[in-house]
Predict the 3D structure of the following.
Amino acid sequence: MISPFGSQRRHSLAASCVALASFLIVISCEAMADDPVEIALSLHPARIDPFAAPPRLLPADPDLTPGNAAVVLNGLMAERQGYWSLWDTIYDDARLPVGDPRIAATEVAGIIPDMIRAGLIRDADWNHPVREVGANVYLGDMQMVRGLLERPLTIWIKQKLAEHDLSAATEGIRTQLACARHMGNAPFMITAMQAHAVGTVAFDNLEYLVAQPGCPNLRWSLSVLPPLLFDAPSMLEWHTRLLELSLPRLKLGIPQDSDLEAWQKIASDYFDLIEDSKNPLTPEQRADLILRCAPLARERLLRRGLLSADAAMVLSPEAAVMRAILDHHATQGRQLRLAWALPRSEAIGQLAKLDGLAGAWDLELDSWPLANGYLKDFLFFNHFSRRTAMLETVESLRHHAATHDGHLPAVLADLEYAGRPDPVAGLPFTYVRGDKPTTASLSMPDIPGVPDDAQQRRTYKIEMVSP
Amino acid sequence: MTLPKSLFKLLLLGGILCGSMAAVVCAEEPTTIKLTLHPQAIEDNAPLWPLLPEAPDLKPGNAAVVLLRMPWAQRTWMEEWSPKLFELLELPPGDPRVAEFPFDRFAAEMRRAAFMRDADWAYSLEDESLDSISTPDILELPIFFRGMSIWIDQRIAAGDLDAAREGVLTMLACSRHVARTPMSIHHLVARGAADAALYRVESLISQPHCPNLHASLALLPDTVGDCRAALQWEAQNPKRLLPALRNGLPSSGDTQGWKAVMDDFLRWEVGPWGKEETIRADFEARRLELAAEARAAVARGGYAVPDRPISEDELGMGYLLAKTARAYRRAEAAWRLPTPDAIRALGAMNAETDAISPRETQTSAPFLATYVATEGFGRRARLLEVVEALRDALAHNGGRFPASLADVPAHVPHDPFTGKPFPYEPAADGRSARLSTTPIPDIDNFGAVGSALRIYELTIATE
């Protein structure tokens, strides 16, 4: 098979949505890392007090105020242009461990109150012109908001942790999660990924928080977190329509098969959408490609009963190819929505099948924004709930230590407050107590049916510190 | 209409209203429905028949305004037709009295509301006492949901199945709007309306040539609204009901402050209808009872009080408020669990409170009842999804019911309440079958309230 886009086809498509490619690359590299992660956690025993109100990690509904958080967050960027010159430094500082003197020296406090305010606003309407231009939308605002939430806010959280102001640090993490949820209100899969990338950073900060002496037990706080930071059905409904919304001629409806001019326009718009803008095809190359793809496209339409043999004889190459692409996209979108509606264990199998089907579709012009494949995207999103459940178990362990002379249990079944199993694998977390009763390891179990390189394994090496 | 004075009554009212909307929801016995099925394959190529509007189809606007305006726009209609709705609902769709029911104008308005993105009911929960909040939506909207049900019957009788499907979509979308209020009673009203829509789906899929709705049903959510926000609001009920708590809890040792809270609470518990002398006697008895409960909790461990002496009011009232807040926290966490685990967790809360004090079941039992009532929507949707998987199997299987659900080619969902397959028993000749839900011990106390206990007796239509 000859491909004009080669292995870069997906990024080429993303390049048409100016910021999309960078999101894919950054998210792919950072948040979707497949390497096993091992974290050393020095924990202090903390009892669960059933009558005390632990802090929330997302604002409760009665605490929210009317307004549009997107305005506050976008305004924050416009107002603080001075940050751009410091951006790289802030990026590096945000990755430093709590207590590093360079963190204390970085001035970020000025923008924090507005971020906290945004986190406490009920709605976030980003007003992206998705109905008007589909995927040809500029999403630079989301990248910048993501940067603000991940970098300066993390530095501030780490400053507060170093000062042992745990209440402020908790508020910072709550703000990160609340604003990530706001980002999840945008109607794109890519912005949902950004929201979860912020959620990942918030969880890194939570791991620092629970390791602080005097940190209250957060088991309940974790147990009421949602499994996702966006409305999955709504996002998938938009995602399924995105191609159609990106091809302006389709706003007038699907043209007649005989309307050559309309199908040529649709094909041209499609090329504009998926091509790498730096290396566009010439009109001749486009025409050649359409001609090469037309037989396969006709074959698909015939096989699926969408075209009669007689009609296939007279269908123009542009109409055949574009009809096949639209049908492929609609079918995949429908299967994707149905798979996401299943219980997670069943969804994994369905999404793996869908990835296989997508791979088997050998038309050269089928590129459409899937960051890493259906299953990998699903696992990336659901990693949030796995980390939530894992930290809940950590908090149950802290309670056990507080009521058992600082000792960890021999097995998880000994916990008074039982931890949830891994919500995606459907299996208990793997727990092994160490040589000493104060050490243990806690790991995510492997998810059945998921390839090794997509497991996103995480292990806590726990040491319970004496009070 | 003014809200009644206890959470239990409030939730019970929701159940009653649901019952008036869709009496079968609250039936004590499983409901047996006879469905005559026409084999119909699932068509991957056909456009999806949505049963809820898709996000890109929603438009800006506040659906609450449109829905609340309807009763006032047509007073004559309301006076003439609203008393007849129950009678019309009992009639078969082809009855001439159903055909002449005038509802087109309302159907169009409801459809317009259905395609609006938001529904802001503008309750002033932060400013008003719970006692003084009126809920006209609960009283009036069920009338229009009933009207919409009859309108769908008209479309089915006329053979206009796509319009009937759109009527179902409208009802489900408007129930979702109703569930956007911050009170769980509305979730029960919404569930009642959504249930009425699912009755129409049963009628729809029994029609010859009805497309297979397997995918449409699979995409329906488990509930029409998220009840957790309502729980978070209701956790603040003490503050909204007891004026002495408006500025927060009194500090420890503030004897007068705690007495004021206790007095407000006892006044609320007795209600405005109690006689003065009875109230006084009740007050003292209840004050002592609460303090005794608190002491018992301290003795059991888990509830801590300051080392120095505190008043009986602070002891009793402090414990009651802490316990109420704790119950809401536990309920909120349970709501996040997978459904079978959530039912177990909320059932355990009931059992615990039963053991401590039978009186307290009044504050905790509605959690489980509300949960099964709201989640029961998803249970019914999944059961209907199985029916559609069976219609697809009939189309592939020479018009015979398969021997087991494992032989059904399409996806067959499990019962979300049990995590197991729905019980399915085909007749030996493959011409009929029985599909049902399993009773769950933890929710037997509520009979079938909202738990969607159903038995489908399925037969194959003779063309």
Observations:
- The longest strand of chain B covers residues 31-37.
- Chain B has a mean pLDDT of 84.
